Amino acid sequence: MVKSVSPYDSESAVEIGQGGMGTVVRRKHLYLDRFVAMKKIKPENMSDPEFIQRFEREAQSAGGLHHQNVVCIYDFWKTPTECTIVMEFVDGTNLRKVMASGRRIPVEMACYIALEVARGLGYAHRHKFIHRDVKPSNLLLSRDGEVKIGDFGIVKVEDATRELTQTGAQIGTTHYMAPEQIEGQKLDGRADVFALGMVFYEMLAGVHPFGDSGEAGQSVGAKILKGKYVPVRKQNPDVPWRVGRVVARCLQHKPTRRYPDMAALERALSRILWKYDLAYAPQELSRFLGECGTIKEPAPDTKTRQMTPLPPKETMPGSVLPESRSRRAWRAILITAGVLAGAGAALAIYLMVKHR
Ligand SMILES: Nc1ncnc2c1ncn2[C@@H]1O[C@H](COP(=O)(O)OP(=O)(O)OP(=O)(O)O)[C@@H](O)[C@H]1O
Ligand SMILES: [Mg+2]
Questions:
Q1: C-alpha to C-alpha distance for 60 and 54, rounded to whole angstroms
Q2: Of 88, 110, 139, which one is at a domain's C-terminal end?
Q3: Distance CA 56, CA 62 (A)
Q4: What confidence category does residue 172 fall into, taking pLDDT thresholds of 50, 70 and 90?
Q5: Which domain does 165 fall in, by range?
Q6: Is residue 265 one of the residues assigned to a domain?
Q7: Which of 57, 90, 151, 213 has the fewest Cβ atoms nearer than 10 Å?
Q8: Same domain, 183 and 83
Q9: Residue 344 counted as domain residue
Q10: Over 80: is that where the pLDDT of 57 sits?
């Protein structure tokens, strides 16, 4: 019998963190000379078949997804004593840690992160997967300034009849659940739109729209069901009205009033960022992560990449977002007043000269 040899170096193992399902450890693939992230189920959960099934589902569901904004699954195995998912190691941090750093995320950067997440989710939705657990700790930000969605563990395969996915069972974090998900109704991609809306709001406002991070899930869930929250621009007046409008549309209580799909949200965010040269966005994000102290240092060789065809831009921001309607109106009023004053002065000079 040939004894199997693990290609993953156990000596290089470093624990990255612990979540609800298990522990995530970084290990090195000995032959491919690259790091991977391994999620191992907690031993106390090994005897729970539903838990194992969910874990297996995480591997299966994300295993077929290949997109730059989705954490790639490399391998999965299950033995009577162990259950492990091997995935792409995202060298960086997660959005929860960035939010906890106390630094306000600049508006453009929040829009860029939301846009990248919308792209990854849009791809998953097109492949009939709803994430159902979009939350800051599941959004990974690499040192290179990439944004990747992890934990497709409780995804629902649309139209599938598998028991774990069919019921509206409340799995996931109530803090970021759409009202219909809390109520256990049938879900579609618009539940992820709502969840992303909450994350987007939190990036912009620095607070969750429906409660504190320390607040119990049940209490936040009740507030989500009521649907009342302080508009994002009241929390942070620097948020342009267009951005506030996108957030508000994501957070509509009724799914029919939200963006119908991620593509529509993507378009709305791209329109907002049309002046922002996205080729520099990963670099900017990488630098910001370094400034927040959430990564040791930004990647030295972060490449610029053109992600959408955008007109070239000579300089990097100040605020590159389109001006708000009220600012435009004020500018028009001031220009008109200036022109009228100039014309009046010219007329006065003309009359003075004429009557001399
Ligand atoms: N592929 C990965 N690459 C790098 N770090 C990862 C990866 N997947 C998860 N992590 C990190 O490991 C830690 C634990 O993640 P995990 O998903 O288990 O828990 P969580 O997201 O905090 O909670 P939950 O279990 O509710 O999802 C987090 O800090 C997360 O950022
Ligand atoms: Mg997670």
A1: 10
A2: 88
A3: 10
A4: low
A5: 93-304
A6: yes
A7: 213
A8: no
A9: no
A10: no
